[in-house]
Amino acid sequence: MNAAAYIRLQFTSEKQLSALINALTPEIQKQISNRSTVYLARDAQVLLLSVEAQDTIALRAALNSYLRWINSTLNVLETLEDTLKKT
User: Radius of gyration of the chain from Cα atoms?
Assistant: First the structure.
């Protein structure tokens, strides 16, 4: 692999971090490309996302995908929490 990125995201909510990991696990188990490899780990309240790719184009594509999935999942979780608070 010629390109790599390592992302650390700090969470204050254990519940959000667990839900996020559960949502991303199927994507990690079935890699989206043979040009990149993605690893997901957890260290206490920190999500560790590691992306290794054959080139910067593949790295950027994988990073964009996973960061969008993370953002979308967090938006859904926040919407659910807001809805539950109102009921």
Answer: 14
Residue 9 class from Cβ within 10 Å (0-12 exposed, 13-18 middle, 19+ buried)? Answer: middle
Which residue type occupies 8? R
Q: Could you tell me the sign of the dihedral formed by the alpha carbons of 21, 26, 28, 33, in that order? A: negative
Full-model pTM: 0.86
Ranges of H-type helices in the chain: 14-29, 56-86
Residue 30, both tokens: 């079935």
Residues 13-58 pLDDT 10s? 899 999 999 999 998 888 778 899 999 999 999 999 999 999 999 9
Q: Which of 69, 39, 53 minimizes the C-alpha distance to 3?
A: 53
